[in-house]
Specification:
Chain B: Keywords: ATP-binding, Kinase, Membrane, Nucleotide-binding, Phosphoprotein, Transferase, Transmembrane, Transmembrane helix, Two-component regulatory system. The structure holds two protein chains of two kinds. Chain A is an alpha/beta fold. Chain A is 42% helix and 22% strand. Chain A contains eight helices and twelve strands. Chain B has a six-stranded antiparallel β-sheet with strand order 3-2-1-6-5-4, with helices on both faces. A five-stranded mixed β-sheet of chain B has the order 8-10-11-13-12, covered by helices on one side. A two-stranded antiparallel ribbon of chain B has the order 7-9. Chain B is of the alpha+beta class. Classes of the chains: A alpha/beta, B alpha+beta.
């Protein structure tokens, strides 16, 4: 068991779920504090130096969404949202409001730990990330300076739109980007919410970088929410 | 029949008497005038008056006309020189006779006409008030039988007969008995001998009514079907005049309206109650499933940790794994119930968006492989991206259910394959496994709610038979088709569903 010094805040009103999350975190060597309400979470955030927050959207006192908005006013800490499966709209708006990732109930502790590790890694990187110009995931690499993409060490030709899509993902490795957010970044704010062009663009890009576009290894689809560049 | 004739002749005698008396009276008055020495013109005027009065108090034109001619001759006989003969000394009298006759005829016809009009408007008024009376009473009716009772009573009262009414039920069949008016305040129910015959007669009707052995039957037509039959006793129906028939038709129409209104009100009420019940049920189900999710997350997470804490050889590992598996099963059940309540909820029409088929398939495969990493799933999608309008979340649920089924019946080494293809205006998704296939006896029932296989090979794995019916409901909501059959090329089952590529209802304006 390795000892880490990150402090994680668990905001969850169900004690059973809280218990097993605490146990998993302890196994991984994280420190943690818990809160059962949104109010409690905000109080803790003020008094403690929290590095990452795990937030259940359905809290007894008020909506978890409000917590995200409040926290984003003064902190860039990673927020991982936990919610039920059919609340896609809430997930998407939580992400648009500044959450970094989401988990669907019920989730396995293995998955939870994987997500937390990714978020923490970004936390550590983010200091020097802006200077870093070459980024890579598996066999896929991007050179932001030269605007070049490499797949398995050979240069990959991409259209300008495909390149900007890829660079958007590389700047947010592991993070779920909502469809609306991507459209706004790629096509501009005035484009509206027509997803058809993005779906086609994504299909074209996948045919260049994935072995089987229906079993993607790099850019994963989060149905009803958006996409994520896998960080494994 | 005979009584009718008798009544007529009595009336004729009465009118003749009236005519004779009035002419006689006019002659008497003329006689007095002659005695006193008034001019003849006054006598003519008196005769004219007498003809007017005759026309007023008799029926039709005949008596007035007869009176006009008779009066002329009487005047001639009694008051013109030479007296007491029909001969005339002064030819100028012929002018008097001519004008007198013509004036008399015109007066009498005019008077008769006025009388006729008055009579007709009286009849009309009576009709209107009768109809009004009926409609008024019908609004208070409590049910269809009540409406029939009120109609029977009112029509019996107006037509002065023992009318009857046979209602048809909601499926369009005649009831077993009909209501008949016995006397002014008593009704009886009589059995219908042959309902099928009655129905046949009324349905094959070409004229306004059908003639039976006891009754003349008038159908009561509703908006959609025949609502009943109004029966008038034969002996009365035969002698009905045009105006009475007209009144009867109007009354039947009012009855039909009342019956229709009552039926549609009741149907509305019923469907409203049903909707409320349905909504209540699905809300309850949804609330329960929703609340099940949180504890299930706890159970699954905790049992997973317990598995983590024990060695795989430890019997406690198996126990924890059992808990985890059961909770997992329960969880997919909850998700399916939630999908079902979302679909059945009248409020939610699915929101379709153009989605890439490969993304939805990829999402479902990813979901399944996370839970069953030991399996290999082959995916084959067309080279060109296939965009299909759908609710991606629901179609993902369909694929997950089909893959779950495939995994349940296929060993980890077996082949599971998803193929997406495009056929004309349809996108076709196929999920094929290499398991034991579907028993022939089960094939027709696989999409039935709560159907689980009864063949001996039913495995230990529980199933409530919700997965496939939900797939079917989702695909139907997308206006697609779904079917399942055994593979012909090898062992195993294959499920194929299609989704329309274009939305049928609103094509693009271009």
């Amino acid at each position: 068991m390795q000892n880490r010094n990150e402090l994680i805040l668990i905001v969850e009103d169900d004690s059973q779920i809280r218990n097993f999350i605490c146990y998993s975190l302890k196994q991984e060597g994280f420190s943690y504090i818990t809160a059962g309400t949104a109010q409690g979470a905000l109080t803790t955030l003020v008094t403690e130096q929290v590095d990452l927050m795990l937030l259940d959207l359905g809290l007894p006192d008020f909506d978890g969404m409000e917590v995200i908005k409040k926290v984003r006013e003064w902190s860039e800490m990673p927020i991982i949202v936990v919610s039920a499966r059919d609340q896609d709209k809430e997930k998407a708006s939580a992400l648009d409001n500044g959450a970094d990732d989401y988990l669907t109930k019920p989730f396995s502790s293995m998955e939870l730990m994987a997500r937390i590790r990714v978020a923490i890694r970004h936390l550590q990187k983010s200091g020097g990330a802006r200077l870093q110009t070459t980024l890579g995931v598996g066999g896929l690499k991007i050179d932001l300076d030269k605007r070049l993409v490499y797949l398995e060490d050979s240069e990959l030709h991409t259209t300008p739109l495909e390149y900007s899509l890829l660079s958007l993902f590389f700047r947010n490795i592991g993070k779920v980007l909502t469809t609306n957010y991507i459209i706004k970044e790629i096509y501009g704010a005035g484009y509206g919410s027509d997803t058809q062009a993005l779906r086609k663009l994504m299909a074209g890009l996948r045919r260049k970088i994935e072995k089987n576009p229906a079993k993607p290894r790099y850019i994963l689809t989060e149905i009803g929410v958006g996409y994520r560049l896998s960080d494994v | 029949m005979r009584s009718l004739k008798y009544k007529d002749s009595k009336e004729i005698i009465r009118y003749i008497l009236i005519t004779v008396i009035i002419i006689a009276a006019a002659t008497g008055i003329g006689w007095i005038f002659l005695m006193i020495g008034f001019p003849e013109t006054n006598i003519v005027i008196v005769y004219l008056l007498s003809i007017l009065i005759t026309a007023r108090f008799t029926r039709g034109y005949t008596y007035g006309l007869v009176a006009a001619v008779v009066a002329t001759f009487t005047f001639n006989y009694f008051f013109t020189d030479p007296y007491y003969t029909f001969s005339v000394s002064d030819p100028a009298y012929f002018i008097t006779f001519g004008i007198m006759t013509i004036t008399a005829i015109i007066t009498s016809t005019l008077t008769s006409k006025v009388k006729q009009n008055a009579l007709e408007s009286q009849e009309k008024e009576a009709e209107t008030s009768a109809l009004f009376h009926l409609t008024n009473r019908l609004t208070d009716a409590a049910d269809i039988a009540d409406i029939a009772g009120i109609t029977t009573e009112t029509i019996s009262g107006i037509m002065n007969c023992r009318a009857a009414c046979l209602c048809f039920d909601e499926s369009g069949q005649p009831e077993q008995s009909f209501i008949q008016q016995l006397n002014s305040n008593e009704q009886v129910r009589r059995k219908v001998d042959d309902t099928a015959e009655v129905k046949h007669q009324i349905e094959s009707l070409r004229s306004g009514y059908s003639i039976g052995s006891e009754f003349y039957d008038w159908p009561i037509y509703g908006r959609e079907s025949i609502l009943g039959i109004l029966r008038i006793p034969k002996e009365h129906a035969v002698s009905m005049g045009e105006s009475q028939k007209r009144l009867l038709r109007s009354m039947i129409e009012s009855t039909a309206l009342a019956m229709d209104r009552f039926r549609s009100a009741r149907q509305q009420q019923e469907s409203r109650e049903e909707t409320i019940q349905e909504r209540y049920r699905s809300n309850l189900l949804r609330a329960i499933s929703h609340d099940l999710r949180t504890p299930l997350s706890g159970i699954m997470g905790t049992s997973e940790i317990l598995m983590d804490m024990t060695e795989p050889q430890d019997p406690r590992y198996d126990l924890a794994e059992g808990i985890h598996k059961d909770a997992d099963w329960l969880h997919s059940l909850v998700e399916n119930i939630l999908s079902l309540t979302r679909l059945q909820d009248g409020r939610l029409t699915i929101t379709k968006q153009l989605e890439a088929a490969e993304e939805v398939v990829g999402g479902a495969v990813g979901h399944i492989l996370k839970r069953h990493p030991e399996y290999e799933i082959t995916v084959d999608v067309p080279e060109e991206v296939l965009l299909v309008p759908m609710d991606a979340k629901l179609i993902e649920q369909v694929l997950i259910n089909l893959l779950d089924n495939a995994i349940k019946h296929t060993p980890p080494s077996g082949e599971i394959k998803i193929t997406v293809s495009q056929e004309n205006s349809f996108a076709t998704f196929s999920v094929a496994d290499s398991g034991c296939g579907i028993a022939i006896s089960d094939l027709p029932n696989i999409f039935q709610m709560f159907y689980t296989t009864h063949t001996g090979k039913a495995d230990s794995q529980r199933s409530v038979g919700l997965g496939l019916p939900i797939c079917e409901a989702i695909i139907k909501a997308h206006e697609g088709t779904i079917e399942g059959h055994n593979r012909t090329d090898q062992m195993g089952a294959e499920f194929i569903f299609t989704l329309p590529k274009e939305e049928n209802n609103h094509a693009k304006p271009e």
